[in-house]
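Dear Dr. K.,

Following up on our conversation at the group meeting, I've run the structure prediction for VWA domain-containing protein from Acidiluteibacter ferrifornacis. I'm pasting the input sequence below exactly as I used it, so you can double-check it against your construct before we proceed with anything downstream. Let me know if the numbering doesn't match what you have in your notebook.
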Amino acid sequence: MFRFEHTYFLWGLALVPLILLLFILYRRWQKNARQRFGENLRMQQLIPNRSQVKANAKFYLSLMAFIFIVIGLANPQIGTKQENVKAEGLELMVAIDVSNSMMAQDLSPDRLTAAKLAMERLIERLKSDRIGMIVFAGEAYIQLPLTSDYSAAKLFLQTIDNNIVPTQGTAIGAAIDLAINSFPKEEAKNRALIILTDGENHEDDAIAAAEEARKSGIRVFTVGMGSPSGAPIPVFKNGRQNGFRQDNEGNTVVSSLNEEMLQEIAMAGDGQYFRATNSGAGIPQIMQELSSLEKKEYDSKIFTDFEDRYQIFFGIAFFLLFIDVILSERKPKWIEKVKLFEEKES
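The predicted structure tokens came back this morning:
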């Protein structure tokens, strides 16, 4: 297996064609200038010991050294090294509301984006914990099973939008039930469910579902996305806002945060409720609460360790530069001796 650790350095290779082009143009200008100054034969008489071949060779040596230095800076890594590592941590499931009401803009830039940013900050705080994702609207779906691969979690997080669930609504209870079934069956005390929603539950009994989660050893935390005063729900067409959602009577629909519902769900699930603001979503407070939970030792997992190979490329680059420095542009002495011999014979 092969990879570059710092791929952005490879952009330096884009300069190679430009350098070659400038060198060719310079040589052409130099040749034209010499022709204006005098015939090539006269120039050879003025600078008889200069070797054009060696001058070109020195340029290509420097260019090759530059290429190897760029590759070395990108740090090629090769090979895999596998080792089993035991880890202790929590099991967290995050349920994100993706209903249309989450597009309201009483949080900047909108509720759903604010929820995703809060989720990203949560992932950055994790160390040896496992995290999974659920998306829900009228129905609930697993977006990401429990994993300790935080890079994958961030990748899946970016794919979440309000069109990911086909059925509209806000089935918080279904999301809680799905979370219960998503955890391993064995009993544990290191599990939590974090629900990010505006609390407009229209589908089921979320409080009863939270009580079942508590009985299963899962603490339920709720994060209110929005404001009690509410905001209209924008309608988008072809990626551009095209007014606001209206009811059957033509009135603009205003979506308000249902704090009372979310507080009751958190209480039933032995957790806490936090209201999100533009400056945060209670993630530090939730992590503080979770720090008291019992950690669980997970099965061994495999890490891939790449070995650095930048030393090889730097070594080649410095060797080429050394050759460039000691290489003279003078013609070899044996060529001068041959010319002298030919002159004597003539």
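Two things stood out to me. The chain has a mean pLDDT of 82. The radius of gyration is 34 Å.

Best regards,
J.T.
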